[in-house]
Amino acid sequence: MLWCAGSVAALAALLTWRERAATFIARSQRLVMVVLPCATVLLGSVLWVLLHVMLLWGQNAPAAVALR
């Protein structure tokens, strides 16, 4: 859960950093070059963590661990 909270905080920091650009063009460049790729990685990692938490807490937890 700490990873998920940290990822959400990092995403919020990225979006705030994007909004602080001086011009519209700079905001657009920051969005395309930095925010979107980082948001993809952060949200993907959050989904990966949540999937594994659900697998470990699920009904077939021993079977999911044995498949690894």
From TrEMBL:
Q: Which UniProt keywords apply?
A: Membrane, Transmembrane, Transmembrane helix
Q: Taxonomically, which superkingdom?
A: Bacteria
Transmembrane segments annotated in the record for this chain? 31-58
Supply the name of the protein. Uncharacterized protein
Q: Which organism is it from?
A: Hymenobacter swuensis DY53
Question: Lineage of the source organism?
Answer: Bacteria, Pseudomonadati, Bacteroidota, Cytophagia, Cytophagales
